[in-house]
Structure formats: C-alpha cells, structure tokens
Amino acid sequence: MTPVPHRSHADDLLSFIRASPSPYHAVASAAQRLEKAGFRELRGTDDWTGTTGGSFVVRGGALIAWYAPEGTPSHTPFRIIGTHTDSPNLRIKPTPDTGSAGWRQIAVEIYGGVPLNTWLDRDLGISGRLALRGPGGRTDSRLVQIDEPLLRVPQLAIHLDRSVNDGLALDRQRHIAPVWSLGAAEEGALLRRVAAAAEAEPDEVLGWDLMLHDIQPPGYLGAEREFVVASRLDNLVSVHAGVTALAAAATAAEEPQYIPVLAAFDHEEVGSGSDTGAQSPLLENILSRSVKARGGSSEDWSRALAGAFCVSADMAHAVHPNYAERHDPDHRPLPNSGPTVKVNVNQRYATDSTGIAVFASACERAGAPWQPFVSNNAMPCGTSIGPLTAARLGVQTVDVGVPGLSMHSARELCGAEDPGHLAAILGAFVTSD
Question: Where are the beta strands (DSSP E) in 21-68?
C-alpha cells in the first residue's frame, strides 16, 4: 500500500481535481486553500503599498501567489514554482446549437493536443465561466460546473466501420459534435441550461468560456491502489503541489531566505500566448510591483530577479510498457520512483547542470527520490513553461515533473506516491538552500 503521508496527500489531490474541472475552477480552488493559510487576494486596481505576508492575484485562469513576511528585504530573491492550470479538451463554440439526423448536438472546438479517441463514449459535463451583464454596465464573471452526464461523443459501431482498429484518427471537423438530446437543434437550448446552472438568466449572459469534462470521479487503480487515475493530472498535480508548498512556507517559523512564489499560468497547452500565459508580462509585472510595494527600488527589483530561481513543474512521461521503443533506452522513469528532471540540450526544457544540482539538493532535504528524463533522439521532444519563463525573465530554470501514462488523455495515470514527493521537494526548494 502507498505510505500514509503520501496517501493523505493523494486523497487531498483527488479532492482538488474534483473541484477543478476547468482552469477557472482550479484557480478558485487554489485561492480558497491559500486564503485558509492566511493569504489575501490583491486586485490590480488596489493600492499595494506596504503589503506583506501572503498575497495572490487572480486573472482568469491564472494565479500568481507569493509570501513576503513583514521585514523581508526588498531585494530578497524569488523562488518560483511554475505550473499551468489548463488541459487539452473540447471547448464549446460561440454558436453551439447544432444537430443532424434527428439528434441535438453541441458544436465544439479542439483545444490543445487532444487524443480524440479517449473522449469517445464518455459521459461528459460542462464547466467554465460565464460573462454576465452586471449593474451599472459592469461585467461580472461566474463559474459554472455541471457534473451531470449531459453529453457524449458516440463512437461509430464496428459493424459500420470495420477499419476502426486500423487507426484511431478522427475527422476533426465532422465527427466530434457530442449528442445531448433528440429533436432538431433548438437555438438557445444550451444557453438556457448553463445559465440555469449558474443561477442566471439567459439574457444576462454576454459571453462564455465553456468546456466539456469527464464526470467520472478521480480515484485509485492497481492491486495495491498504487496509482492515481483522473482527468487533468497534467497539470493539476503540480498546481496542487505548488499550493501545498506555498501554504507550508507561510507557516514556517524561521526567517525566509527567499520569497516563495507560485505562478499558475493558463493556455500552456496552446503555447501560452495570452495575457494569462507564461509568455505574457503577468508574472514580471506582479513581482516587480510587489518589490516596489515593500519600498524597493528598481535596483532592488534587479537584485531580486538576479538571485531568483524557477522550478517549472509539469507532467512527464513514464516509460510505456507497450511502446518501450519510443523512450530513451537509458532513461526510463517509472511511477512511484520520484519526479523526473527533464533534460533537452536543444532547450525544449530549460534544465542545465546547475538546475539539476538545485533540484537534487531540494530532493535530499525532502528525503524524496528523483529520476532523470531525456526524450528518445528519434522522437520530437515536448516542452513546458520553463523555457518561456527563462526567456521572459532571464531567470535560471529547471524543468521537472511527475511521470505518468496517458498524457493528454481524458483520463490520465500517475503513481500515488509521486504527488506527495513533488510537494515535499517544492516545499524544500522554496524555503532553503
């Protein structure tokens, strides 16, 4: 069985995932946990002068949080945990009502690198946010989460396509509109259903960011329940670990050597090209403003950044037993053997030897194992927010992640011990050398 401390962390992770079917819900879940740890939300229009302690800023599906107790020098270096809140999925189009052959369907668009076959024949709900008309011409945002089996992308029967097992590709334009009722497409039907779930009137809804999610709850798998299976492990495992590490740092008695930071970006799966992504100035603007709010100068900001370090935590590939030839023959990470350190000499990952040393040192302090990861030379290498953060801020960065299988699937798998290992390591990373 998984050791008790790791089981407790994994149980809490499953609760976090259940509450976080969309990036906006993940941010709300993280903010709620940080508030319980004594953090308070700051808004961009607030006066931050003299702000100390635990603070966080929310922008859509992104959250930036940091902890700077009173008396912390303005030039104190940052220790940044970089993560992302989004996952590949199916997102509802602005004009959603469609249908064919007597079926009512919903028009969706593919977000990120989705293995489409994993979304077939699954019971799907709807989650995301609505932009509502508010008083005085203002616009309000409201979360919506419908954990009911509303929709399904039905697979064509094998009798009607004998070649279905020859390849799993789907026509990306024609065959992914989920069915949700019988009858002709009725304009506004989805809007009415979603608005009711958000306790709003349809005419209040000005826009939305809605997506589909698998309603099967996360859980454990294996003879000894040694695996976690859930949607959005990539990258809620890292977001949850980062929140856990930051909250723990805020309760540490000793004077901090660093200012711990959690940067949970949105839109990583599509290149981070938005105001909430890692390519945006969001993190830079917030951290520089936090330095000035504590009385720091531009020189203090430069010093804090020069001494900063970032751990970019994203999911990694465990060696697949059915496709071992797709992995590097000498680097084959396994679940429950610790997070991986991702290396790519072409800088698809931002890791170098110094970064490995910093992370390995944190692993030693946490008493946690780690594994090296390198992609097979014959396979294209993925990337993460690490290189983007390094390029944007000039901050030294190491890319790491919990190894798993079925990455980007509607339901992913990782070891039940590794999320706890990652949280302990990140906690050691942000608090001391």
Answer: 40-41, 53-59, 62-68
Question: Candidates 1.10.10.10, 1.20.810.10, 3.40.630.10, 3.30.420.40; correct CATH number of 4-87+231-431?
Answer: 3.40.630.10
Start-to-end C-alpha separation, the chain: 32
Give the sign of the dihedral formed by CA 174, CA 180, CA 182, CA 187.
negative
**Cα–Cα distance for residue pair 352/25, rounded to 1 Å:** 34
C-alpha 413, offset from chain centre:
15
Which CATH superfamily does the domain covering 89-214 fall into? Answer: Aminopeptidase i, Domain 2 (2.30.250.10)
Determine contact, residues 60/266, Cβ cutoff 8 Å: yes
The DSSP 8-state label assigned to residue 131 in this structure reads E
Hey, where are the domains in the chain?
Answer: 4-87+231-431, 89-214
User: Per residue of the chain (433 residues), what is the pLDDT tens digit?
Assistant: 566 678 999 999 999 999 999 999 999 999 999 999 999 999 999 999 999 999 999 999 999 999 999 999 999 999 999 999 999 999 999 999 999 899 999 999 999 999 999 999 999 999 999 999 988 878 899 999 999 999 999 988 889 888 877 755 444 445 678 988 887 778 899 999 999 999 999 999 999 999 999 999 999 999 999 999 999 999 999 999 999 999 999 988 677 789 999 999 999 999 988 999 999 999 999 999 999 999 999 999 999 999 999 999 999 999 999 999 999 999 999 999 999 999 999 999 999 999 999 999 999 999 999 999 999 998 888 888 888 888 889 999 999 999 999 999 999 999 999 999 999 999 999 998 7
Tell me, what DSSP letter sits at residue 307? T
* CB-based contacts of 380, cutoff 8 Å, min separation 6: none
pTM (global) more than 0.85: yes
Phi-psi region of 222 (alpha: psi -120 to 50; beta: other; left: phi over 0): left
The amino acid occupying position 229 is V
- Quote the CA–CA distance of 432 and 260 in Å, as a whole number: 10
354: helix, strand or coil: helix
Tally Cβ neighbours within 10 Å of residue 326: 13
For residue 382, which phi and psi values (nearest 5 degrees)? -75, -175
Q: Is 343 helix (H, G, I), strand (E, B) or coil?
A: strand
Look up residue 425 and give its two tokens: 């390591």
